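Ticket 4471: requesting a sanity check on a complex prediction with 2-acetamido-2-deoxy-beta-D-glucopyranose. Repro inputs:
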Amino acid sequence: MLVFLLLSCCTNGEDPYRFYTWNVTYGDIYPLGVKQQGILINGQFPGPLIESVTNENLIINVFNSLDQPFLISWNGVQQRRNSWQDGVYGTNCPIPSGGNFTYTIQVKDQIGSYFYFPSLDLHKAAGGYGGLRIHSRSIIPVPFPPPAADYTILAGDWYNKNHTDLKAILDSGRELPFPDGLVINGRGANRYTFTVDQGKTYRFRISNVGIATSINFRIQGHKLLLVEVEGTHTLQNTYDSLDIHLGQSLSVLVTADQPARDYYIVASTRFTSQVLATTAVLHYSNSEVSISGPPPEGPTTQIDWSLEQARSIRKNLTASGPRPNPQGTYHYGLIKTTRTIRLASSASIINGKQRYAVNSVSFIPADTPLKLADYFNISGVFSLGIIPYAPTGGGAYLQTSVMAADHRSFVEIVFENPEDTVQSWHIDGHSFFVVGMDRGQWTPACRLAYNLRDTISRCTVQVYPKSWSAVYMAVDNVGMWNIRSENWSRQYLGQQFYLRVFSAANSWRDEYPIPRNALLCGRAIGRRTPPTGSH
Ligand SMILES: *[C@@H]1O[C@H](CO)[C@@H](O)[C@H](O)[C@H]1NC(C)=O
Ligand SMILES: *[C@@H]1O[C@H](CO)[C@@H](O)[C@H](O)[C@H]1NC(C)=O
Ligand SMILES: *[C@@H]1O[C@H](CO)[C@@H](O)[C@H](O)[C@H]1NC(C)=O
Ligand SMILES: *[C@@H]1O[C@H](CO)[C@@H](O)[C@H](O)[C@H]1NC(C)=O
Ligand SMILES: *[C@@H]1O[C@H](CO)[C@@H](O)[C@H](O)[C@H]1NC(C)=O
Ligand SMILES: *[C@@H]1O[C@H](CO)[C@@H](O)[C@H](O)[C@H]1NC(C)=O
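Returned structure tokens:
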């Protein structure tokens, strides 16, 4: 009964429901052989895989059995009209220790490979993440035959220091050290095995769930046929290896067409002076030869190689996305942009401490989630219109910054990276068309080289050192949305802000009302949510 009251407002009753109850606890894990308190979900690390189909409703009741506040966010899930469920600091009160919160999420009009992760503090460095798939509805054609099996690979860097120690380093104003190693599905070298039958084809959905480094992914002796990137069906090109930046996800098909034996699956760090690597095992079911010798080397060429590869990833215009019509029927290149937003990252020392900023503004959280402050008209929590639409070159300063955006505008966003490290930018609630990226300083003349025909749309884009990446984005989702670095220490120390997509209409067509079970905290304590969420 309670569940149905809760659901009545913000889900579509015609689409199926999936119910999950998750218990988040600490538990002993040994990813690199050193015992640590990992964040487990229902005793598992990585957490349970979420399998869903376009438009389904996911009802996920998360019980927080940690000794501190906790939130989960859903990387790439668009939460249409529903930033209330986004699970980041700016939209949700943390689930208190010993408390619970039921997320009510509809995976509306989406397909693809994503992951969820704990969004507060440095929790992500302790696990708490898992895969999230949105399959096409049965009536929508998928541009490749069903694979013999569908495997998730969550790869990323790992620290032997626990999340509270890592947070303490950042709080004291220092940078994180270099990671201690990489893990694949929470395990170190050769501790995870994927079994394949000779002659069959498999789908691997790979996400970089790390907090500090880009990775390169490859499978010894096998080609990777790229088929999907964050919900876009790509032109099916083959690669020997693929670079995957922080927070990014993609799918490849791999055919077990080699002699029967075991092969290395490798993830290694990219663009780092010291290269860390880890391996898992691709085991042919009829194999009698185990892995031996050194794993295959990654690419030795650096940025130009990676940039070329990124540009080669294109959309299959005739394939279907979440809807039956071909992906090419949305002519993003013909839409006139209404505004250009240029966002430059920077690092600086403020009050003696390491900080990171966007257009000179280094984000600091306030005492109340921004979405709640906005809804309850609590003033003085955030400032609208402080963060400039272009870099100013001025010194960095601390601010709880929110950028205003007009609902239904179509914007060009240029991410500019004057620094020496790779940036990885994510936008919640939207996906965007990556129209261009190149080295050097962006100028309006760079638009002449944009791909206005068949680039992919995704939710996380890399920006190479001393380079830029430009995206086109339909601002079509009312709410409060986090724009952040996926490099977690940079995010934590200020390289993020919120985009407030506003509609004066105040109608459920544009945005769902506050959920009846919304947790209240900070200056929102004691405010009343509407007594019913019914129609
Ligand atoms: C979560 O797990 C802990 C440890 O096993 C247990 O004490 C607690 O009762 C569980 N909570 C729920 C809501 O299942
Ligand atoms: C992290 O390690 C420190 C000691 O280095 C310890 O005091 C702290 O309790 C640990 N935190 C967790 C969450 O395990
Ligand atoms: C906590 O879980 C109970 C069911 O066990 C549910 O009725 C309640 O709505 C949940 N709380 C929130 C805030 O979602
Ligand atoms: C594009 O998709 C179509 C059909 O949906 C498929 O037949 C074709 O092989 C795909 N082309 C490439 C190059 O991936
Ligand atoms: C917030 O202010 C707006 C505009 O004055 C008003 O329409 C709305 O009802 C207020 N919201 C709450 C929750 O009081
Ligand atoms: C993440 O940020 C840190 C601090 O600036 C930097 O050392 C590291 O190289 C960055 N990671 C990537 C992938 O560039």
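Notes from triage: The mean pLDDT is 95. Leaving this open until the requester confirms.
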